[in-house]
């Protein structure tokens, strides 16, 4: 039986199609493979297997194909097929139907049950590009040949800018938005005096904000709310839409000042006001709902209660926010809830307390963590690791003061953009000083302290830098978001011609650091190329040529090193584009860990120059980068990744020695001295407690190795070792044990 690739080539050859084969690094994601192939995203065929739910257990399958820069419009597919909802096919099902692994699905269907529907936008180009049922090879196919061979059904199934409303982005969003309405209806039935505000769909769920007045609502009330929701939804056959005038809208919510504020705002903006009703419940809403709520809204769960200021402003009243989630199937809901439970177990705030790594004090202040000796050990190990590695790579480590005149940040251009997150200035003598929110201006002053020649460049200043930023209280979260942090900061001042080489070096360093932390590129993290929005002259420096050069330099390097990346408009720094390192957290969501930034603005502001080979003064560019990010955030991430069971090289206590009886204490202490002399972080547990209790306690503390000494060990001059996984290594020679520890530490082996 021919494989799918061979079938494709045979099909193209049999029709004398005009096509090219393109070999490249193994990659299936459209936004990453397109630069490798040399095509624009709009020329790439993005192919997705969809399950079309027609009601009951009846389903159809569609192979939806859209340009690489577009997303599938699920609502359009729903309308096209007369379906209740549409979802992506599970990976195993998609691969079976398409005959290809995910990321390599062809824009051809070889199965009669898989209907091929293509958006006409894809056919606007002379050629279209797609992976050839292989990760390492693509096809560039003449478009007219593709249409003649594939004979696709042409329908508008790609999202078009300016057509969809914000709440109509997907069927899943519509389902969750509908569930938010249902929850609000249940809440209003149980607390009639409550006032509703807003209730949008969000990633993985929804929320609704309420003003309950004097009433208190907690998670203990969730069973009653959910019971009410299940009862109400039976009568919710659809959502009826009605356009109303501002006066009619105000009348509908005459006793709700929050809704009236929104109505007034929308009316001023000349927005169409709409009410949506299902059952007896009516709400002010832009739309985007499930077509059959009584059939679709079955699998939901209320998750948590939190405080939230009205319109996000601390000047406004604190409301009660109820979070929930909703999924199209029970299986999806159960999978999500299981993942959330696992995430709770790994929450760094919980584990940090249990493992004695850090604490907070009301008297010290919110967002100001205190690292214990154990927590400080982890930070110190990371600091030494990154400083040593950066020194090897040609960085010069410096120290600069953690405060400076406010004029420094006005000159850099940071002040207008970041003043809301800066601490207020302190009047010292005649100067106004602020705690620094970033380090780059300090490093520029070092550079300007003496004349520079092209022979001196690139100059790489690095610093383990304390920084201070005012984060709102509602945004603080353990070590993830704090008000002071330590950053592995650096600034590379280089001729523009050498910028690419320096960026490659930075990405190589980042990849090396992440490998040492047990992270795999493409699985645990990827890169985001954050671009500027040229039309936003208020936010971004106006220089199209410089922007083009900088963005292309970053893009070229990402392609050259075959890094997985995607592009994000309007995410650049005000002084240039950047590469963001996107880490996948314990919840499976991406967070920006640190950045690599290309700066062509501040060299002008600070008049940074160097003498070239002719003696002319030339302006360099600056590469801002962090190699390990903020230590606090990195530690939080590692706690959650490893559930507190750090690799040996990072573990605050690497070995605990447990003497079985008091008569074994001398031998235990002798071993302690030997291990400490060898640089192993070791302690002795000589408590008058049963050995099994000691083993349990240190296992719960995630100590990698427990060295147990009893009569046998003393007599034979050996040690019995128990790992935190429960493995027993009996009768080890101490030198062999020490060698094992050193090897594991030096290689930075991961558990």
Share in β-strands: 25-35%
What portion of residues is helical? Answer: 25-40%
CATH architectural type of the largest domain: 2-Layer Sandwich
Helical stretch tally: 24
| CATH 4th-level superfamily of the largest domain | Bira Bifunctional Protein, Domain 2
Tell me the domain tally.
4
Give the N-to-C terminal Cα separation: 42 Å
Strand order of the largest sheet: 19-23-24-31-28-27-25-26
Coarse structural class: alpha+beta
**Number of DSSP E strands:** 36
Q: In angstroms, what is the radius of gyration?
A: 30 Å
Largest sheet: 8 strands, mixed
Mean pLDDT: 90
CATH class wording of the largest domain: Alpha Beta
Global geometry:
globular
Looking at the structure, the CATH topology of the largest domain is BirA Bifunctional Protein, domain 2
Low-confidence spans: pLDDT under 50, at least 5 residues? 162-169
Overall description:
The chain is an alpha+beta fold. The chain is built from 24 helices and 36 strands. The strands form 9 sheets. The chain has an 8-stranded mixed beta sheet with strand order 19-23-24-31-28-27-25-26. The longest helix has 20 residues, at 171-190.
How would you describe this structure in keywords?
751 residues; alpha+beta; YbaK protein; Threonyl-tRNA Synthetase, Chain A, domain 2; BirA Bifunctional Protein, domain 2; 4 domains; 8-stranded mixed sheet; 36 strands; globular
Compact overview of the structure:
Helices cover 34% and strands 26% of the residues. α6 crosses α7 (222-233) and α17 (499-516) packs across α18. Residues 162-169 have low confidence and may be disordered.
